[in-house]
Amino acid sequence: SIDVYKRKIKPEKHFGISSDHKNLAFVWEVEKIEPVLKEIFDLVTEREPYFGISDHFCNSFFRNLQGETKERAKNFLLDYCKANFSDSNKMNVVVDIVRHSMKEMFNEILLLFLSLSQDRGIFSKIWWRGNGTSGSGNVILADIEMADWRNILSIVEKSTVGIKLIPIKKYLNEQIEYCLKSGDAERQMRFLDRY
Asked: Looking at the chain, which terminus has fewer C-beta neighbours within 10 angstroms, N or C?
């Protein structure tokens, strides 16, 4: 029953739950597991705050999938996106999964979202590039972030939705411009620190 699956799969409540220690991809071997997973996704999303740090717990269901199970998982994510595109919390879970465990789906999920919603407010609350930037050495973090935003914009440009995407494209260009200014300021500070 669904309750049995929930008890076995549902982690104990705590902040910042991580999927690092779990691999629950075996669930795709269960016939008609999708409704159960939908309930688990909804439950975890409602009860566990997710701040975009490390992988979301739900990645546990999508690690190293192959063949038919991967197709089922892909269809599940597409259906979950269609049902929840207006909920940025649930979309953040989907996007986190496609960023970490199902990378080949990122463009497809982004374009599907755009076909369903052109709402700048919702789009801006989804962590399309993750939440934060890290680097080492002499890396300019704003340059990494800018490259991510440019890549996202290039995918958005492939959408057939048309002029309805102007607010989202404007948002992306604002992010790119902000990163450009931040990067220049960071370079200037480094230059001045040397002398």
From this structure: C
pLDDT digits (tens, 9 = 90+) for 111-133: 999 999 999 999 999 999 987 66
| Closest to 169 in 3D by CA, of 152, 148, 181 | 152
Per-residue model confidence (pLDDT) at position 12: 46
Q: What is the dihedral of CA 179, 183, 186, 187, to 10 degrees?
A: -170
pLDDT value at position 191? 75
Contact in structure between 97 and 58 (CB atoms under 8 Å): yes
Phi-psi region for residue 130, left (φ > 0), alpha (ψ -120 to 50) or beta? left
Reference 91, options 66, 72, 117, 73; nearest CA is 117
Stretches where the chain sits below pLDDT 70 are: 1-21, 52-53, 132-137, 195
Q: Are 57 and 89 in contact (CB under 8 A)?
A: no
Q: What are the distances in angstroms from CA 180 to CA 70, 81, 138, 146, 183?
A: 38, 32, 17, 7, 5
pLDDT, residue 1, reads 46
Q: How far is CA 83 from CA 45, 90, 155, in A?
A: 14, 10, 22
b/e code 40-62 from CB counts within 10 Å (16+ = b): bbbebbeebebeeeebbbbbbbb
Cα 136 to chain center, whole Å? 23
